[in-house]
Amino acid sequence: MIKGILFDLDGVLYVSERAIDGAHSTLEWVERQGIPHLFLTNTTSRPRSAIVDKLAGMGMHIDPGAILTPAVAASRWLACNVEEPLALFIPGATRSEFSIFELLPESAMAGAGAVILGDLGHGWTFERLNRAFILLMQAPAPALVALGMTRYWRSEQGLQLDAGPFVKALEYATGLDAVVMGKPARAFFDSAASLLGIIPSELLMIGDDIQGDIAAAQASGMRAALVRTGKFSETDLQQEIIPDVLFDSIANLRAWWEQQE
User: Fold this and answer.
1) Cα–Cα distance between 11 and 39 in angstroms, integer?
2) What is the DSSP string of 7-46?
3) What per-residue confidence (pLDDT) applies to 129?
4) Segment 106-138, tens digit of pLDDT
5) How many CB atoms neighbour CB 229 within 10 A?
6) Are 212 and 184 in contact (CB under 8 A)?
7) Model's pTM, two decimal places?
8) What is the rounded distance in angstroms from the CA atom of residue 200 to the CA atom of residue 182?
């Protein structure tokens, strides 16, 4: 029996600045039913407060504590596994999620306990990437922490590189393996299950990414529902990955849930 739900955001509840039809009423129904749930997102370009504001502008009101981002998961992991200071290679708006830690000065070329990488977009330069490389080449090597391994995403201007390719470049150059704190890493899904207090086999992940949402959730022991919105393509259904459920959109969730009951 499914006892809880994990929602992807972009592509499931909205696309760009437009809410998907039925998303608002579906979330209201989930709240009324008291179904435990979290919202999972790989975004590293904005803090949870900005995500809450964006959803509120579309008529969807959620608690910041119900949003699990790679930065939140990383903060939990760092507090238990790494000695400070941290070297942050993330957007300025996301730095607030690491406010409890000592941060390495922006000009420092050594002394990091961990190097944190997120989606800097146009902020990536050779100098910035090379500084991350030099920090990681110190002995002992700091931890390389990736806020997700998404390869690319669709912006209003078209396809755009995400953090994954830059993490891979540093892994290749340094010989280190990154600790990944976003989808599709199992640790990210395990963190969501732990926060809800529900075992993975009793959770349903709803997403639009056949690899990062569906295959990753299934590999974590969860069931997964693919929606035909967002980045979904009909070619997704020609892969070896088979979603447990296929929805035309998030608006189908209620009928499916009631049928299962």
Assistant:
1) 12
2) EE-BTTTEETTEEPTTHHHHHHHHHHHT--EEEE----SS
3) 97
4) 999 999 999 999 989 899 999 999 999 999 999
5) 20
6) yes
7) 0.81
8) 16
